[in-house]
Amino acid sequence: MFHTECSARRLLDHVTSRWGIWVLLRLHERQPLRFYELRDRIGGISEKMLSQTLRNLVEDGLVWREVEPATPPKVAYGLTPLGGGLCAHLAAMLDWIEDNADNADRTGDQAPSEGALPSA
Amino acid sequence: MFHTECSARRLLDHVTSRWGIWVLLRLHERQPLRFYELRDRIGGISEKMLSQTLRNLVEDGLVWREVEPATPPKVAYGLTPLGGGLCAHLAAMLDWIEDNADNADRTGDQAPSEGALPSA
DNA sequence: CAGTATCCAAAATGATACTG
DNA sequence: CAGTATCATTTTGGATACTG
Q1: What pLDDT score does A107 carry?
Q2: How far, in Å, is the CA of A18 from the C1' of nucleotide C10?
Q3: Position B108 in a domain
Q4: CA of B85 to nearest chain A CA: how many angstroms apart?
Q5: What is the distance in angstroms measured between the alpha-carbon CA of A51 and the sugar C1' of C6?
Q6: pLDDT, tens digit, for every residue of A32-50?
Q7: Count of domains forming chain B
Q8: HTH hxlR-type domain: which residues (chains A, B) (predicted)?
Q9: Is the pTM of this model over 0.90?
Q10: What is the CATH number of the domain that holds B54?
Q11: Which of A7, A41, B1, B71 could potentially form a cystine with B101 if both were Cys, beta carbons 3.0 to 4.6 Å apart?
Q12: What is each CA distance from A41 to A36, A52, B12, B31, in whole angstroms?
């Protein structure tokens, strides 16, 4: 299923792309956000990549885009219900990673029996 | 936190790398698996990438590696408890994506309220 | 402001051949 | 079998300049 050229696969690719996950997470924290607000909050992202990532996410139906016709233009982005649903999973996973990552990056060693210990 | 050079960040990078997610998921379906078994089940992965991906995941403590000294060598891989915990999140997210992806890849249209329906 | 277009650098990936 | 080494290619990412 995920080996085909289906929308599920494309969506996964976009989410796991270099910036996709961060765009989604920033919008999950706070929305709507304007283009430059996203750029500033993410930090390190080029305009090209932000633009490209946003376009992908909008196409996938995870993010909405609203243009307020004015000069200068005002464009806002936010999460669609679909994007919100995905972010729930994403945020949960990221939280879990934060909590557990250092827990075991030794080369597969057995329990160190000292140092930072789990609940036991 | 995730903007630093921490183990959480490295772990995330490895998981979201081109093949990381698939290696984990195959092992989640069935373990242990030998090197060539993983290669065959994943499909399309080169030996170089499989080797590299596995090394990363082992270093991160998500996957274990066991060598049975023999000629020819037998090497088995499986998920550590940490890897299992991550795979729970991963599998849940992937399931969700499968279920919801086609649901809305129109350019941000409102609820189609018809067409391919969920469980109904 | 919110992008796009272009060009360049860097990194990821792949195919192949080789080794213990 | 289970990799590693090497090289070529593809993809990705970034800096910059330009436009509506």
Answers
A1: 40
A2: 14
A3: no
A4: 9
A5: 16
A6: 999 999 999 998 999 999 9
A7: 1
A8: 6-105
A9: no
A10: 1.10.10.10
A11: A7
A12: 8, 17, 19, 41
* Domain span including residue A49: 7-99
- Specify the residue for token string 């299923």: A1
Of the candidates B50, B81, B53, the one whose C-alpha atom is nearest the C-alpha of residue A108 is B81
Q: Exposed, middle or buried by CB within 10 Å (0-12, 13-18, 19+), for A49? A: middle
Gap from B73 CA to D12 C1', Å:
37
The 10s digit of each residue's pLDDT in B17-35 is 999 999 999 999 999 999 9
Q: Residue A45: inside a domain, yes or no?
A: yes
Token pair, residue B45, equals 């992965």
- Reading the block at residue A104, the tokens are 């075991």
pLDDT at A76: 97
- Whether residue B111 lies inside any domain: the answer is no
The reported pLDDT for the residue numbered B2 is 80
Q: In this complex, do A104 and B61 lie within 8 Å of one another by their Cβ atoms? A: yes
Q: Which pLDDT score, from 0 to 100, does residue B111 have?
A: 38
Q: Which residues of B touch A61 (CB under 8 A)?
A: 103-108
Nucleotides of C under 7 A from a protein CB: 1-6, 12-17, 20
